[in-house]
Write a structure and sequence with these properties.
Layout: H1 2-9, H2 14-20, E1 26-31, E2 34-43, E3 47-55, H3 64-75, E4 80-86, H4 91-97, E5 101-105, E6 109-114, H5 118-127
Parallel strand pairs: 3-4
Antiparallel strand pairs: 1-2, 2-3, 4-6, 5-6
């Protein structure tokens, strides 16, 4: 992400990052006992917002981001899930494969959303 921050925002701004870093929203990604990244999720009353998914470059391209995202989608299948990303972020293709679609585009960034999985909701409701 560092390259994208530099390209679009002129660089990494530590104060801005610290301001948006809310410990209660963070889950660390631990692989083989080492910190490999983190996930920041904000739970709003009507939707879930993926604030940030970061993986160390060492762990990228191995399907770990897909597993993290899939687990989040399964755990929150009844909720609308939203995120924002850079238009040219390679992860945007992953989001699209996982069912997210662009709801707003404003040049360098896009807002994406995945609607609740109604089939899962109906199945679990009828099973009760």
């Amino acid at each position: 992400m560092y390259e994208l921050f530099c390209k679009h925002w002129g660089g990494w701004i530590p104060a801005k990052f610290r301001k948006g870093f809310v410990v209660e929203n963070i889950s660390m990604v631990i692989i083989a006992g080492k910190r490999a990244g983190y996930l920041s999720v904000i739970k709003e009353p009507t939707f879930i917002y993926i604030d940030n998914i970061q993986l160390s470059p060492t762990w990228q391209g191995q399907g770990i981001g897909s597993k993290i995202l899939n687990r989040l989608l399964v755990n929150h299948s009844r909720a609308s899930i939203r995120l924002a990303t850079f238009e040219d972020n390679p992860a945007k293709r992953l989001y699209e494969r996982m069912g997210f679609f662009v709801v707003e585009s404003n040049g360098m960034t896009v807002k994406m959303e995945k609607m609740p999985n109604k089939a899962v909701y109906r199945t679990s409701k009828t099973a009760q």
